[in-house]
Amino acid sequence: MSNKITNRQIVCEVLSEHAKTDKNIVVLCSDSRGSASLAPFAKEFPEQFVEVGIAEQDLVGIAAGLAKMGKKAYAASPASFLSTRSYEQAKVDCAYSNTNVKLIGISGGVSYGALGMSHHSAQDIAAMSSIPNMRVYLPSDRFQTRCLFEALLKDEKPAYIRLGRNAVEDTYEEGNVPFEMDRATAVCEGSDALIVACGEMVKPAKDAAALLRQQGISAAVLDMYCVKPLDVNGLLDAAKGKKVVVTVEEHSPFGGLGSMVSQAIGASDPKKVINLALPDAPVITGTSKEVFDYYGLNAEGIAKAVKKNL
């Protein structure tokens, strides 16, 4: 893989660039500055950094308090803990109170690999999306991550952003990222099928479309980085005339991207929707790639599902 820069490194870069002139930007960590790649921020801006320690509920509560005092709070912690242990604080302190807290779930999905189900976050999309006022974003690569955080710095609403642990292959090209806040991005056009993906599943979806093209099947790919608010209009436009819609996510089969897409398609343009996701079971032990390959969440598996359901 050519790209070695993780999405979390980009977050540190963007926040550091803006913190030089905006002293209201505050970053909080739960003994996670290293794994969040935020150590450089802590070193450069010690007065704008809060180390809470391994106390995720306090992390979110303190971030909300700082936000109520006019700060722009960015709270980073492993997604597996941030979306479960701090759930009440996310719901009440951030969303119900509509505070300017950006919750950054690092090492999301199965990034922690061998550490198993205790460290996997396969339920966070469903959990966070079900909270009123909470937005949910899963950027697909480093370039889109930069665009997203530049946009998030301009608003004052709460959000949950899931980032993986490892560097991922580029979906887009530097300087050529078609980004619009809360609008899905058309990665490639097609006429037979639509593949809707989010986060680290977008690049495999793009590669699957290329494989299908070689077999004479035309598949469009939609990057639904904005899982909530879901871009329903963009989805329906992309699904128009397609024989099948296939969703792909690094998440439980319940309550995530597939469920939302199925609801939207079922209500307005009924057709077959196939959801590719992690199983409703503790996943196998292995690296992200090994897990994805095992469950068919790769280019070959996605292409196979599309072809089978046409």
What does this molecule look like?
The chain is 37% helix and 18% strand. The protein is of the alpha/beta class. α8 crosses α12 and α9 crosses α10. Strands 2-1-3-4-6-5-10 form a seven-stranded mixed sheet, with helices on both faces. Strands 7-9-8-11-12 form a five-stranded mixed sheet, sandwiched between helices. It has two domains: 156 residues, Thiamin diphosphate (ThDP)-binding fold, Pyr/PP domains (Rossmann fold, 3-Layer(aba) Sandwich); 125 residues, 3-Layer(aba) Sandwich (Rossmann fold).
What are the defining features of this structure?
310 residues, Rossmann fold, 37% helix, 2 domains, alpha/beta, seven-stranded mixed beta sheet, 18% strand, single chain, five-stranded mixed beta sheet, 12 strands, globular
